[in-house]
Design a protein that fits this description.
- By secondary structure, this protein is an all-alpha fold.
- The protein has helices at about 5-15, 20-30, 35-50, 55-65, 90-115, 120-145, 160-170, 180-200, 210-230, 235-250, 260-265, 275-300, 315-330, 330-355, 360-370, 370-400, 410-420, 425-435, 440-465, 470-475, and strands spanning about 70-75, 75-80.
- It is globular.
Length: about 475
């Protein structure tokens, strides 16, 4: 076996196999920042198309999500219990979305410990903007629905959909300064935290709380925290205990998706080894690997086939040690977030859109146009989010609590505030928690879809009128 230099290994790492070529378009698309928003938009269009197709197709589409019971049976034990509907829509909203909330929890923990939310001065502007962006829409909705049957949905227009909002920003390309993207991402993460608190506090009925199950859920979370302290780093162990956490949170009467965030808070965020130790150990192992390759070359007389790498026991041991080193230099939180982000963006959220965005526009539009609930949602998303985010951010800057990011103007901020009105995923989710009546829920969905579409169009239009930022140009 001949001793191959660094250039050879570089060539091997970039050598494309037929399968790589075949899947290159899909891989390249998935890497784009707008990819998640585009997939979500396509799923929404598909759901709306099927729901507004012929009566036969529309009925079949609705029955697929709400008319087919899906349950697990082991002897006399059945899941979900009879008090839950157990159809596909329930599994998506109450089970699959827990994975989405788990990713949100991982992002929140990372941002507070090592990201933008760690620095109070950097975090001040988006945090204050997020508070204003939740308060004003809620007040606008309440003004339209005070004392009415739609009042329970006051939190629907308070949410921001990060996938859609960032998708619009990515499509606008180089005219957007990097600081605006950071502002919108941080605002959306803070917004998610606010939405989680709202769900836990206002959409959990104390009458339905099962304190025994809630106590067991707390104990299970304690077990996960103990695993962290003991140095357990295997993701699948946290996954198994996390399933138990989800089950007991469900039985407690708290919405089970909250279990995703609770579990995420226990995931280890520290590396096993530091950077200096990783560098030193890796260099030692690479040297050992090279020595064995050179020895193999001498033994074989250099006659082995170019490109064939057959590792000796020594090389296999080195590779295994390097794998463990690499694992130790990464935090379990980083690995989980990196692994689950594509799952959430390209599977969980699009499936949620297919299950929940199918509104029969022809049947709902006429009613919604005369209903204060729909107007409260639309104006809350379009006007409330814009006024709340922009107004609170302006006050934060004027009072000296923060400053605008580099290259960002107030016109940029107006566009970002409008994009903050794209509620979609979280707004639809809260709508399901707020309303059991199919008619109220359909009106809420129509308002969310309409308000989010208007906010996206207006936000993109404003940002397209902005001059290309020198900061953005220098980044590309």
């Amino acid at each position: 076996m001949s001793h191959q230099g660094p250039d050879y290994f570089k060539d091997v790492s970039t050598r494309r196999r037929p399968i790589d070529v075949a899947f290159a378009p899909v891989a390249n698309f998935a890497k784009k920042e707008a990819a998640g928003g585009i997939v979500l938009m396509v799923s929404t269009i598909v759901a709306l198309t099927l729901a507004n197709s012929t009566p036969t197709i529309a009925h079949a589409f609705h029955q697929f999500w709400t008319g087919i019971p899906v349950s697990l049976h082991v002897g006399s034990w059945a899941f979900p219990p009879s008090k839950y509907p157990g159809h596909l829509e329930w599994w998506v909203n109450d089970a699959l979305m827990a994975a989405f909330f788990f990713v949100i929890g991982l992002e929140l923990k990372r941002e507070f410990l090592a990201g933008e939310l760690k620095d109070p001065r950097k975090a001040a502007l988006p945090l204050i903007g997020a508070v204003g962006g939740m308060l004003v829409p809620g007040l606008i909705y309440a003004a339209f629905n005070w004392g009415g049957e739609g009042m329970r949905g006051w939190a629907i227009p308070t949410a921001t959909d990060i996938a859609f909002a960032l998708g619009v920003l990515a499509l606008l390309g180089r005219r957007i300064p990097p600081g605006l993207r950071v502002f919108l991402v941080t605002l959306a993460i803070a917004d998610d935290l606010g939405a989680l608190l709202i769900i836990a506090i206002f959409y959990t009925s104390s009458e339905n709380l099962n304190m025994r199950s809630l106590g067991i859920a707390g104990a299970v979370m304690g077990v996960m925290a103990g695993m962290n302290l003991l140095g357990v780093r295997r993701w699948w162990l946290y996954g198994l205990v996390g399933l138990a956490l989800w089950y007991f949170v469900l039985k407690s009467g708290v919405h089970p998706t909250i279990a995703g965030v609770m579990g995420a808070m226990t995931i280890p965020v520290r590396t096993r080894i530091d950077a200096a130790e990783f560098t030193k150990s890796t260099r030692r192992l690479v040297d050992e690997f090279d020595r064995d390759v050179a020895a193999a070359k001498e033994r074989s007389g250099g006659g082995e086939k170019q490109g064939m790498i057959v590792t000796s026991p020594v090389q296999q041991g080195v590779l295994l040690a390097m794998e463990k080193l690499t694992e130790g230099a990464q935090t379990p939180l980083q690995r989980l977030e990196k692994g689950m982000l594509p799952l959430a963006a390209f599977f969980v959220v699009p499936i949620f859109a297919l299950a929940n965005a199918g509104v029969s526009v022809g049947n709902v539009a006429g009613i919604a146009l005369r209903d204060p609930q729909a107007w409260g949602i639309v104006l809350g998303l379009v006007v409330g989010k814009t006024v709340g985010i922009l107004g609170a951010s302006f006050l934060a800057v004027r009072l000296g609590l923060s400053v605008l990011p580099a290259g960002v103007t107030w016109r940029h901020m107006l566009g970002a505030a409008l994009l903050g009105g794209i509620g979609f995923t979280m707004s639809l989710f809260i709508a399901h928690l707020a309303f059991e009546s199919p008619e109220r829920l359909a009106i809420a969905k129509f308002g969310v879809l309409s308000g989010s579409a208007v906010a996206a169009i207006l936000g993109a239009a404003v940002l397209m009128t902005c001059r290309r930022s020198p900061v953005a140009a220098s980044e590309h």
